Amino acid sequence: MEAAAWGAVQAIRPEATSTPCDGTVLVVADAFDWLAALPRDSVHGIVTDPPYGLIEYEGQDHDKLRAGQGGVWRQPPSFDGARRSPLPRFTVLTDADKKRLEGFFGQLAQATLRALVPGAHLILASNPLLSTTTFACFEAAGFEKRGEIIRLVQTLRGGDRPKNAEAEFQEVTVMPRAGWEPWGLFRKPISEKTVAANLRRWGTGGLRRVSRSEPFRDVIASSPTRADERALAPHPSLKPQRFIRQLVRATLPLGLGVLYDPFAGGGSTLAAAARLGYKAVGTERDDTYASIARRGIPLLRDLYSDEERPQ
Ligand SMILES: C[S@@+](CC[C@H](N)C(=O)[O-])C[C@H]1O[C@@H](n2cnc3c(N)ncnc32)[C@H](O)[C@@H]1O
31 CB under 6 A from ligand 1? Predict the structure, then answer.
């Protein structure tokens, strides 16, 4: 099962493929093109952090990010003199952008449903403003919603006073300061009569427990990505290893199969998979980010000692 799937993912666009470490494949490609070439029922789990505003990784706005200002990206205020990473400002999306968002996530849901084996889980990063819209696309495509994973994390989103009237409205906050991030948890319906039978046939259907005595839980305390990780893989949306390793671990219930990240970015999901000894493939269409991931994946994989419990 694993060997056949592994052969299939490596056969697509071999000229654009690299192997940052054993069992990890990175393809410089558009996720939708790559998924279209993948045979049906090929991958056993997906953990991904998609481009949310959609425009934030597109031409004009992406250039503004790289230039250091403007567009959908904002530079959070610096309270302590430390330079902070830019954040996408999702509230500037227009109705037309939202329609594009639904189109994009509808297409992603259909393509990933086809690629996953029955019973496979897909875990999708989101944010409180857009999760309702995007999660609905996955249910409409045929995924079962199995819950949401709440990442508790102090962010710099929200909490601002009305723009250009801060002194006048000192006691007003326009939006709450966000302290959590929803991750949608979906499953492709099982093909067998029971989860046990599906696990035997496909290696999927459930989530891997933290240990024999502890189930996987849907609230995870986390911290923002640490500076040492960002230095190893300088991508603006890099997710922290201690958090992403927990999601990746849970996604393959028997530890077998192939995990896929359509939007690999700086490679945090692939690095987590490598750390866990899981086979994984990622697609990233931007050459600069793909190079960052290629270099960063083995370094992120080796971070933190085995005894340390991931958070
Ligand atoms: C939110 S970031 C992912 C960050 C990643 N989780 C990490 O920890 O580094 C989304 C990434 O998807 C890439 N991307 C956007 N559209 C894509 C597409 N159609 N195919 C492949 N990659 C795409 C962007 O270049 C960006 O690097």
Answer: yes
